[in-house]
Every structure is written in structure tokens, then in C-alpha cells.
Amino acid sequence: MATENTLNDVEKNSGPMAEELERNSLKDPAVNEVHTISPQERKLVWRQDKRIVPLSAAIYFLCYLDRSNIGNAKILNSSVHNDMQTETGATNDQFNIALMIFLVGYFLFEVPSNILLKKLRPSRWLAFLMIAWGAITIGLGGVHTYAQMTGVRFLLGCIEAGLFPGLIYYLTFWYKSDERSVRVAFILASATLAGAFGGAIAYGIGHMNRIQNLSAWRWLFMLEGIPSCLSGILVWFFLPDWPERASWLSESEKDLAAQRLYLEGAKGSASAISWGDVKSTLIDWRLYGHYAIYFAVSLPFSSLSLFSPSIVAGLGFHDLQAQLLTVPPWAAAYIFQILMSWSADHFNARGYHCAAAAVIGAAGFLASAVLPADDYLSRYGCLIVGTAGAFGCIPPMLGWLTSNMWSTASIGLAVAINVSIGAGLGQMPGVWIYKADEAKKGYPTGHGVNCAMLFVVAIGALGLRFYYGRKNRMLLNAAPEGVTPRLYKL
What we know:
single chain; 75% helix; mainly alpha
């Protein structure tokens, strides 16, 4: 009973001095040594990685594939007028509204979804989401009008809203703060793989045009929705929920997992979110700095996700060739994300890495905006640099936020709000910045806006880095002798 009370007290205490309270309350001295990576801990983390990271990455891969394939469908077989936009009779503005309405549903349902994930267990909730969005994606292959397309996209946004913030929240139940960014990167990098494979898959399915009297874009939605439905069944049975409930861990491994996360992880046994948790998270003003930079990076994230095929088509490549040439920018972004995230965690320098990646991406977009419209090769190289930089700054950014939250409830709510503001509201302008009538000009508006937003990310990340550095110095100066306060991650 005493142990249970101590756990509850620690869970509620989110202040920087919490570490001293927790250390004095612990009976097992091994908890104080868990910061040193022992062979046992390294083995445990590797076992967790094998179970969690590939499955989580595969889930997000399918999610992103089903979300962004509408960008491929828009131009697939457009040369013979069998593309989605032509067959649904949508204008350019109407098609963009259909893209944006997805984000409205995304914004509305992210916070409720994270609450349900904790309440219903990750394996059950994520499996439901997968089966639902897979079925909706299949249904998108049957739309015939602009109104139908818009309605189905809204439903898809409502269902997919819970996945990405849910996965970020889920990782906090298994990994320490200095282990999260690189794992977030592997999951988020699956989006870049989906972008790469999406173009290649669309290229292949494009050759199925008019088979069974169906246009290729209809086959694209149907064939890409089926794996999500089937995979949802696997997730139900094979995705582990919390370390304390993992049947594949021994009792000693479960104890070690609990000790590792005693100070800086979410707990499956923690109580449900309360109004006090909500209030304290909402008035924690430093979090709005995190929300602001995630809002800014969401414009290039969404615009590249939806318009890469169109951007490549504007570089002098057409139809199926344009689908295939969307692959290299995403492949470069995948590698860059992983390297940046590992380095950010390893050196405890998330702010600097986020800022550096954003500047690299901004430089790529700036060059794309000012180069002559017919300098196709140079602008294609700049697209690769811009995509790598824009996506490379996101995993350290998300790992940074979760590392500086210290209770299960606040982590779940802050992540949901962050992604809701960013991936919901922040992505909406990204739908409109690549204007169809600027294709022959090289999309200067889209590239210019993305450049500006990435500079905002860089400035905001540096501002947060200096803020946390100043707070840490204040904490160290105010701490009594012999007491090591809990410091913010940088």
C-alpha cells in the first residue's frame, strides 16, 4: 500500500524537484542506477525494440500511405483524363477543400483519441482505428462526385487523427526520454518510406487503368486499403500494451522496465486524466512554444505529403514518370531523419538539431523559389534537400516535448494538443500554398511559404533551447547542497 501511494505521489508531482522526492521514496537502490546502461537494460531495450518499433512503424506506414495517396490519385493517368480530379468533376479549389476537410476531422478528434487509447488499451484502440481507416480508404475508391469525396475524406481524418499522437504517447510507456527521438524517427520515417513507396506503387497500379472498367486511381485506393484492415487484426493480438502486462517479459524484466521509467515515463497503471491535469497542462505556457514550432513545420509536412507528385510534375516530368521520381526525396528524408534523431538524443541537443535541420530545409526551399522555372535538375535537387530538412526536424521536436513532461496524464494531453494544433490546424494552410496555376512558374508561393515556416521553426527551437538552458541554471543555483534537481532536456 505504501508503494502504491508513493507511485501516485510521483505521478502527480511534475515539478523539477520531483527527482529528489522520488529518490528518497524508493526502496530499491537499483532505481538510482538505472541511468547507467547495464547489459540487462540494454538487452531489455532491444527486446522492446523488436516488438514495438517495427510494428509501430508499419502501422504508421499504412496510415500515411492511405492518407497521402490522394495526391497520387489526383494526377494518375491524367494524360488520358482518367485521374481522380477529372472523374469526380472537381475544380482545383474543390479538390483542395477535399484535402483540407480531412484536417478538420484530424483536428477535432486527436485529443479524445489519446484519452481513449489510455482507457481502452493501445492494442485495442489502434487495431480499431486501422480497420476503420482501411475500410474508409477502400470506400474512397468508389466515390463519383466532389461531395462524396469530401465526405469520405472527412471520415478518414476523424479516424486517422488518433494514430500519430497515440503512437508518440505509447512510446512514453516503454522508453526513457533520451531514447524516444530516434524511435519517433523510425516511426515518422515510415511516412517518408510511404511517400517513396506510394509513388512506386502508384506507378505500378497506373498500368491497371480500365481493368474491370475501373480507372487506376480507384484500384489504388482499394488495393492500399486492404492491408490496413488485415493488419488491424494482427495489431489486436500482437501489439503489447504496457510493460507490466507484457507476457513475453520475465518478472525481473518487468521490474527493470518499471525502474527505468520511474522518473521519466508514463505508467499504464496511472489514474485517468483529471480536470487538475488538464488545467495544469493548459496553463503551462512553455508548451505553447512547442506547439508554435510544430504548427510551423506542419505546413511543409502537409504540402509535401499531398503535392509531391504535382511538384515533380512541375519539374518537366509527367504522369507515371512523375510518380516514380517522387521516390528519391522521400528516401533522402528517411536517412536524414534517423541520423538527426540519434544525434539529438545522444548529445542531449534536440533544440540545436531541430534548428539545424530546419535551416537546411529552408535553404532548399529558398533555392527552389528563386531558381529559374526551367532549371529542372537544380530545382529537383533542392526539393530533395528541402524534404530532408523539413522532415528531419520533426522527430527531435516531438521527443523534446515528451522528455520535458513528467506525468502520464500531461504527456498524453500535451502530445495530443501539439499534434492537433500542428497536424490539424497547421496543415490546413499547406493545402493551399502550391497553386495549380503556378506550376509553370515553379510554385514560388509554395516554396517561399515553406522556407519562411522553417526559419520560424529554427528561431523558435533556438528560443526554447536558451529558455530551458536558463531554467536549468536557475534550478541548479536554487537547489540545496547535495540535491540534484530534475533538469529539463535540451
